[in-house]
């Protein structure tokens, strides 16, 4: 077997191209900023969904997606503050926040613990009935307002 050495080429668009006998391999190279932008952009799209769900009176779903918005923004901070570009596969906002350089107060932690319930309990039928009973328009709007403040704060700190 003959081993062929190749010289990869990086295109202007950030694609690495490796040419070997009989085939070409090309793949994208993402920078740290690309990963951060991914989390911020998808959080922005999810925030639009939160507003639509709230307007449609789908309160538990709005809270579920609002949790996801904070999760994605915390993952953007995680990427910014850590050497690696792939954040841990967790939905726990407290765990994510604590693994960044953000100054997290006890009040922030308490809020994140409360919001975590919408990620977990919003998925499983044994919990969801209780959420539907507890979170109506007034309670949901209050929490969404707090999440929005936190969202804006996280965005400013990026």
Fold and architecture overview:
The protein is elongated and about 65 Å long. The model has no long low-confidence stretch (mean pLDDT 87). Helix 1 runs antiparallel to helix 2. The chain is mainly alpha-helical and 158 residues long. It has 6 helices and 3 strands. Strand 1 and strand 2 (15-20) form a beta hairpin. Strands 1-2-3 form a 3-stranded antiparallel β-sheet, with no helix packed on it.
Give the helices and strands, then pairings:
Blueprint: E1 9-10, E2 15-20, E3 23-28, H1 32-55, H2 59-81, H3 93-98, H4 106-120, H5 125-134, H6 137-157
Antiparallel strand pairs: 1-2, 2-3
Helix pairs in contact: 1-2, 2-4, 2-6
Features:
single chain; Four Helix Bundle (Hemerythrin (Met), subunit A); three-stranded antiparallel sheet; mainly alpha; elongated; 158 residues
Share in β-strands: 5-15%
By DSSP (H or I, 4+ residues per run), the number of helices equals 6
Provide the low-confidence segments as ranges: none
Count of all domains: 2
> Mind telling me the CATH class of the largest domain?
Mainly Alpha
**Main β sheet profile:** 3 strands, antiparallel
* Alpha-beta classification: mainly alpha
Q: So what's the overall shape?
A: elongated
What pattern of helices and strands is seen along the backbone?
EEEHHHHHH
CATH-derived architecture of the largest domain:
Up-down Bundle
What's the short story on this structure?
With 158 residues, the protein is mainly alpha-helical. 63% of the residues lie in helices and 9% in strands. 27% of the residues are buried.
């Amino acid at each position: 077997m003959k081993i062929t050495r190749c010289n990869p080429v990086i295109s202007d668009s950030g694609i690495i191209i490796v040419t070997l006998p009989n085939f070409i391999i090309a793949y994208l190279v993402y920078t740290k900023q690309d990963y951060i932008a991914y989390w911020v952009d998808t959080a922005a799209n999810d925030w639009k969904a939160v507003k639509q769900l709230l307007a449609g009176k789908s309160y538990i779903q709005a809270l579920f997606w609002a949790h996801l918005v904070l999760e994605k923004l915390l993952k953007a901070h995680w990427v910014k503050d850590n050497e690696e570009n792939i954040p841990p596969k967790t939905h726990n906002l407290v765990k994510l926040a604590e693994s960044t350089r953000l100054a997290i107060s006890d009040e922030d932690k308490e809020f994140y613990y409360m919001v975590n319930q919408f990620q977990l309990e919003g998925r499983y039928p044994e919990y969801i009935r209780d959420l539907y009973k507890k979170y109506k328009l007034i309670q949901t709007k209050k929490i969404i307002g707090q999440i929005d403040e936190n969202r804006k704060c996280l965005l400013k700190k990026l």
